[in-house]
């Protein structure tokens, strides 16, 4: 069995945002030389997510609005976690949007559904953060 590991770095200029990382992960699969196996991709920070959904701007705005209703950023004082930090909402948003995705690799390619795209979700940006890519298989 072959194994491959890589870290991808991000630094968003905004507090929140979504980045389509599908092509970068496809490059990782190619680099790994693995034809049949599994790719795991997880955020290595507890205020960021990796998730699969549609690459459609309206939907991304809907996610932003929905997450702000569930866990509004402000007022910061509404959260017990805030004090030294102001990112309680980001921890909650990350929990809803998920930590990781696992995708099958078939014939050297990500075996995604027709509209499935993989995203990095940032909820407390303006600093360097990373995701782990681990691929195993033959
Ligand atoms: Zn925190």
TrEMBL record:
Origin superkingdom: Bacteria
Annotated Pfam families: YjbQ
Gene3D superfamilies per UniProt: YjbQ-like
InterPro entries: UPF0047_YjbQ-like, YjbQ-like_sf
Protein name: Uncharacterized protein
Lineage: Bacteria, Bacillati, Bacillota, Clostridia, Eubacteriales
């Amino acid at each position: 069995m072959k194994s491959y590991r890589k870290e991808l770095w991000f630094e968003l200029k905004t507090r929140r945002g979504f980045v389509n990382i599908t092509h970068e992960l496809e490059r990782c699969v190619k680099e790994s030389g693995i034809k049949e196996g599994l790719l795991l991709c997880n955020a290595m920070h507890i205020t960021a997510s990796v998730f699969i959904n549609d690459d459609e701007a309206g939907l991304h705005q809907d996610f932003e609005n929905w997450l702000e209703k569930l866990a509004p950023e402000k007022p910061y004082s509404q959260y017990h976690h805030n004090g030294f930090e102001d990112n309680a909402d980001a921890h909650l948003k990350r929990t809803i949007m998920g930590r990781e995705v696992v995708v099958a690799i078939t014939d050297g390619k990500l075996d995604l559904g027709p509209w499935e795209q993989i995203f990095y979700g940032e909820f407390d940006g303006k600093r360097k953060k990373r995701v782990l890519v681990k691929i195993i298989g033959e």
